[in-house]
Specification:
- About 90% of the residues lie in helices and about 0% in strands.
- The mean pLDDT is about 85.
- Helix 1 runs antiparallel to helix 2.
- The radius of gyration is 17 Å and the shape is rod-shaped.
- It has two helices and no strands.
- With about 70 residues, the chain is mainly alpha-helical.
- It has one domain.
């Protein structure tokens, strides 16, 4: 698992959250653009879930091998 990818995806999600928040605070947000941003965020959240599972699995086997010797 690439830690850099994990951190990058988390960073992108945080940036998208800020952009989406700005859109929601506008009087008349561009709904098409807002929907696109929400869809993009959803994609990154799914990727982060996969990376988190991979990271947890890697840590589990790393710890198991360390204590199993």
């Amino acid at each position: 698992m690439e830690l850099n990818r994990y951190e990058t995806v988390k960073s992108v999600i945080n940036k998208l959250d800020k952009i989406i928040s700005k859109f929601l605070n506008e009087a008349k947000p561009n709904l098409k653009e807002l929907f696109s941003l929400i869809e993009m965020r959803s994609t990154y959240v799914k990727e982060l879930d996969g990376l988190t599972r991979s990271k947890n699995t890697h840590e589990m086997f790393k710890n198991k091998n360390r204590y199993g010797k």
